[in-house]
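Incident review: delayed structure delivery

Summary: a single-chain prediction request sat in the queue longer than the usual turnaround. Root cause was a stuck worker, restarted by the on-call engineer. No data loss occurred. The affected request and its eventual output are reproduced below so the record is complete for anyone auditing the incident later.

Affected input:
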Amino acid sequence: MKRKSSFFLILLIIILTASSAIAQGPGKEITGKVIGNAGDPKGFAGVTFNGARRYVSMTNSVGEFRLKNVEKGQYTVTVSQRNKVQRFLVEIDGSNTLDLKVGW
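Output delivered after worker restart:
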């Protein structure tokens, strides 16, 4: 009898967890580009979003990055390339595109 009740308890936890994830809905896909002062793309730069959750990406050879399932909210975005670092405060809400201009 105890084994049967444990099974139903585990099943209930799984159902509640799944319904909670569905109710929250998927996060947003964010795409963007990192460029320098002269408009030059910053290829192979690290891009980190720190907020309620943490998301990490790297730009491709033309400075583009993509992050999936980003929750709405305020983030400190850190762009780093070699020994250079720049931070931005951004709000993720309705927009799916975020272009960042660094000072190098």
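Verification: The chain has one helix and seven strands.
Action items: add queue-age alerting; document worker restart procedure.
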